[in-house]
Each structure stands twice: as structure tokens, then as C-alpha cells.
Amino acid sequence: MPVVTVEGRRLTLTRLDKVIYPDGTTKGELLHYYASHGDALIPHLADRPLSLLRYPDGPEGQRFFTKNVPPGTPDWVNVADVPRSGGGEPLRQVVVDDLPGLMWAANLVTELHTHQWRAQAPGVADRLVLDLDPGAPATIADCCRVALWLRERLADDGLAAYAKTSGSKGLHVLCPLRPTPSARASEYAKALAREAARALPGLAIGEMARRLRPGKVFIDHSQNAARKTTAAPYTLRARRAPTVSAPVGWDELDEVAEGGDPASLDIRMADIAGRLAERGELMRDLTRASAARPLPEPGEGRPT
Q1: Helix (H, G, I), strand (E, B) or coil at 278
Q2: Is 109 within 8 Å of 30 (Cβ atoms)?
Q3: What CATH number does domain 3-114 carry, 3.90.920.10, 3.40.50.2300, 1.10.3210.10, 3.40.50.410?
Q4: Confidence of residue 302 (pLDDT cuts 50, 70, 90)
Q5: Torsion of CA 148, 151, 152, 157, to 10 degrees
Q6: What is the mean pLDDT of residues 68-97?
Q7: How far out from the chain centre does Cα 34 lie?
């Protein structure tokens, strides 16, 4: 097992030749991806307790969430106490703030999921997320149409929106917020999802009931709840192919919404270096406090 030094920290990397994805992608290639793109990913993880969806034998093997710090975690990996919603002893969760921590987490073969709040302020959201999930026969092109509507609607309330693929079937729309209670962010997101459903009948739905979802894009607002997490930008996903939850430009969504190739939004590990070189880090401002804007006060703005 090779031992490497990353920014002064010694790491043991295991089973680098192990095939993780059915297309032949190995664990070594997965680790190389994270090592190469830490500059883009780490700002989206910094200060945020992580939930780790582990898939050590690949996406078709066992998959399980780890929230508490795993046994054997090095003492130099940052951790945070996270209150439990029902009280009792807090959870101890990993926080990845640097490249050694990222490589340690990547060696576990895991999706990286974050809360919408930071470790020092549990339950105080500094970003909003809307998860667009197409119910067959709806497609990602339908998600693009809903995302573009949401972008304009959020702008009406002074909020800047950024989009990324989910790495699965749909899209995520995120906004940087001035710190606000997660309950308030959840309330706003729920009202916005319902407004979108009224404005886009036959295309969007804001209700949880699965029987209503076929042929429509479900706007999942629930991930704004303090206890929920969302796949981080640039994380690999536990899918049959090494897809990435990748930031995308609004021009890309507009093109697909207008009939362009939906496969252009099937973004994989091998695509990220070229995208960063060509387009830069499209979600950089999501991590900047200067980009954050307040939610409208109740009774202001349009969601009710």
C-alpha cells in the first residue's frame, strides 16, 4: 500500500488498481481526479460537516451513509460537533478544509454531501438549494426549462442563482444567502416551488407525493431543512458511470431547453479538467460572502 505525503500529512492509499466503475475507472484514477481538482472542490466543503455516501465496491456494491467520524480517522482530519435534531449527544462529523483531508475522504470512495450551513452556525443557512428531479418521461431538458424560470424568479427577489448537474438525472439550483435560519430558508423554498408549479402547469410540481411526479419535474425544496444534505459541487457520484455533480453555465441549460443535445449535461470525471480550463469555476461566487443576499422578509417578494 503506497504511503504518500500531501501538504505534510502522511496518507496510506489502498487498492489503487481496484476497478470502481463498470467502465473500468479505477480507484487510483478516482483519487487522481480529486487530487487534481481540489482547488475547485474544497471551497464548497470548507467549514461544512460532511455526510459520506460510501461505495467502496463500486456503485453496484454496498452503499451506505456515514455521518459520524469513521473509526481510524487520523487525528489531523478536522471534525465538528453537530447537534442532533432530537437532542442528546451531538454527532461528530468530518469537515474537509484542505487537500490532505480531501484525499483521506476520497480514499474511502465516497460521495461528499454537505449541509446548507457551516459548522460554527448549525441550522443557520448561508445557501439555498432546489433539487430538480424529472419524473419519466420528463427529461433533463424539462429540468433546464424549470431551472431557467427559477433563475429569473430568484433574481426578482435579488438572489443570484447558480446551476449544476446532480450527477444523476436532474439539476441543482443554488443561491448564496446572508445567514438565515434554515426553517426560514425551507419556508421560502417551499413557497417558491409551489409558485413554480402554478406558473408551469404540466411541467413542474412542488408536492412530495410520488404519484403526481410522472411526466413532471419535481422541485425538491426539502434539502434546505437543517438536517438534510446535498451532493457537493464536483463530487463524483455512485452511478454506473463516473458522473460528476458539475457546475454548468446558464447558456448550456438554455441550449438544451431549446432542443440541444441533453447528453451535453452528462458530465463525467474526464470532462472536468477541460471544463475548468475553458469556463473556469462557474460556482466560485457561491462560496463568497460578498455574493450573498438576504431572503425577502415574509410578505415581501412574491412567494407566499
Answers
A1: helix
A2: yes
A3: 3.90.920.10
A4: low
A5: 160
A6: 92
A7: 15
